[in-house]
Amino acid sequence: MALCAISVLAFCNIAIFYGFYAYLTEIGIPPAWRGPLMGLEPLTALLVRPFLGRFLTLANGVRFMRVGLCLATLSLLCYPFTTSIPALAAVRVLHGAGFVIIAGGLMGILTAFLPREKSAQGFGLFSVTILIPYAIMPPFVELLLPLLPGHGWAYAVAAPLMLPAFFLLIPLGRKTSAMASAMSPEHLERPSWAEVNAGVRSAGVLLLVVANTCLVAAHSLVFFFMRDFALGLGAGNPGMFFTCANAATISLRVLGARALNRIDQGGTLARAFFGLAALLPLFVWAGIPGVLWGMAALYGTGMALTMPLINASMQHISPPRLRAFNANLLMVAVDAGFFVGPFVGGMLMAAGWTVGGLFGLGGVLMACAGFCVLPVARQMLLAKELG
After folding, report:
1. CB atoms within 10 A of CB 33
2. Taking Cα atoms as reference points, which of 334, 279, 310 lies closest to residue 53?
3. CB–CB of 92/343 below 8 Å?
4. Hey, where are the domains in the chain?
5. Between the CA of residue 331 and those of 22, 102, 226, what are the distances in Å?
6. Burial of 282 by CB count in 10 Å (0-12 exposed, 13-18 middle, 19+ buried)?
7. Which label site among 40, 96, 111, 282 has the fewest CB atoms less than 10 Å from its CB?
8. Is the pTM above the cut of 0.90?
9. What letter does residue 162 receive in the DSSP assignment?
10. How many C-beta atoms lie closer than 10 Å to residue 65's C-beta?
């Protein structure tokens, strides 16, 4: 329960940045710099996480998370006072470092808690804690903005949400210490570089990392550019897109959590990717907010399947000592996707692209993810048939 609550609080400080592109526009940041500044936080996480994953263990995960919470809280408090490009760049780097340390600790401890035979169900339920902030925070921030001196203060308002997480680390620390003391020493040792290199070179691992990068890059285009698109359709509260999408995602993951363990996970994952590939380019044809909200529910349904199934697939093809490391590799892909998506999207918008064109690009990325998953799906199905 502590792990899930910390996850909700941590992702609240990311979910509020759905309007960051518009905010950079409001404070006069040149178009060519908006994409890089949006991508700088995940770029920092991308550079830090591979080294972090090498040193994180069950025994020290809580200590790492405590440091990450301090850095994330400090960065959120700095946003209202940073409007120049160098200052914003520094805050984004600080924010990225803090968040990657929190998320790395969460994933490392989670992989120790989850039994392998229930990994899809476990990742599905845990991912609900990631989605709740994305369902709640965008519409909440839209309601709060008229009461604040500026958009930057909305980011500072999220800083107090980090305080309860510090207290939740106390029971989590006791639990992880008890688990670590009961485990044999070899399970607490960091994997060697030879093991890591062999694991990373595995074709299945690389394909899942590429697929997750494409998934998150496509999702980041929706996340960062949907607000202005929805406003153009006359939506009174553009945050409702994320509320509808995440309500569908949460509903499916909660109600269908047990079924995720029984289905053909690889095949279902590929089909979900191809369905999303067809859906994203259709956003531009929504016409009115009501139709867009319906598409948001379909989008959330597809996302409900992709994220837990890609994590479960990685757990199935990974040897026990590399499961935590490979779980963090998927998080590296998340960082890469959240850097590449807004960076390229911002540059394309500065070059004259429309938001509809970005949604089409997102569809192409989803299709690429589907093709990457197909060989892994065959590998998993064969392993299941062989027992």
Report:
1. 15
2. 334
3. no
4. 2-189+198-385
5. 26, 12, 23
6. middle
7. 282
8. no
9. G
10. 28
